[in-house]
Amino acid sequence: MELRDIITARRSVRAFEGREIEAEKLDKILEAANLAPSAGNLQAYEVYVIRQAAGRAALAKAALDQSFLAGAPVDLVFCTNPERTKWKYGRRGIQLYAIQDATIACTFAMLTAVELGLSSVWVGAFDDDAVRQAIGAPAEITPVAILPLGYPAETPEARPRRLINDLVHWD
Question: What is the pTM for the complete model shown?
């Protein structure tokens, strides 16, 4: 698949088949996240892989009862790790670069999932402390995005997008 085809094919899917994700596919997704660019190549993020039903259920509850998180065979939680960036970039590294690092890695994972025939949806609505507790993360780690992964049990239609002339501002 060409990158443009992958981007065009991506949809926000909230219903997943019950089948497991092959270990090789999950490895490729995590490898893609690891290849994502980051500020100063410091990779100021962590990825928690939640496969057990109890952990996925706890994440669904922490994410304001978004039950589809429990229905996905795997939930990836992308978090900031400010300790990896603050020594070089200070407050900006903690407040911005670590978030950017985590979100770029999540995007790489999402697009790789599409390439491999899987689907996902970006989840950003959740209680940080409840997510930390659900994944067993320490207090200095901040969750940024949850990415449920699985084989799609639905095929959403493409949603309308803004016109380029409305989105882009030229000098």
Answer: 0.96
